[in-house]
Design brief:
- The structure is a single chain.
- The protein is 42% helix and 15% strand.
- The chain is of the alpha/beta class.
- It has a 3-stranded parallel beta sheet, with helices on one face.
- Helix 4 links the parallel strand 2 and strand 3.
- The chain is globular and about 45 Å long.
């Protein structure tokens, strides 16, 4: 059965944040990294969805790995990354059952 996570464009409308919230959150993350003199941070974004934070962090020079269980959300993230010429490492998986592999 389909869920809200199968429709990224509807998901974003239903769960819309006030304008500027994501930008403010990303700015806070970048500020924390800068205070610690960390550049080119490797960031893991769990339940990344369409990777709104990750895209902005990647534009700022971070390396982003995103994990989400919904293929449609990851496809939306891939599409947005391609349009912005940004590299993201995206993986499908349920963060509640992640297992280490070698």
């Amino acid at each position: 059965m389909k869920s809200l996570y199968d429709f990224p464009e509807i998901y974003e409308l239903v769960l819309a944040r006030a304008p500027g919230v994501i930008e403010t959150e990303v700015a806070s993350i970048l500020q924390l990294l800068a205070r610690r003199n960390i550049q080119g941070a490797h960031i893991l974004e769990l339940a990344c969805g369409a990777c709104a934070h990750g895209l902005r962090l990647a534009q700022a020079g971070c390396y982003i790995t995103g994990v989400d269980r919904a293929p449609a959300m990851l496809q939306a993230a891939e599409h947005r990354a391609a349009l912005a010429d940004i590299q993201l490492n995206l993986f499908q998986g349920d963060i509640m059952v992640l297992e280490a592999t070698q």
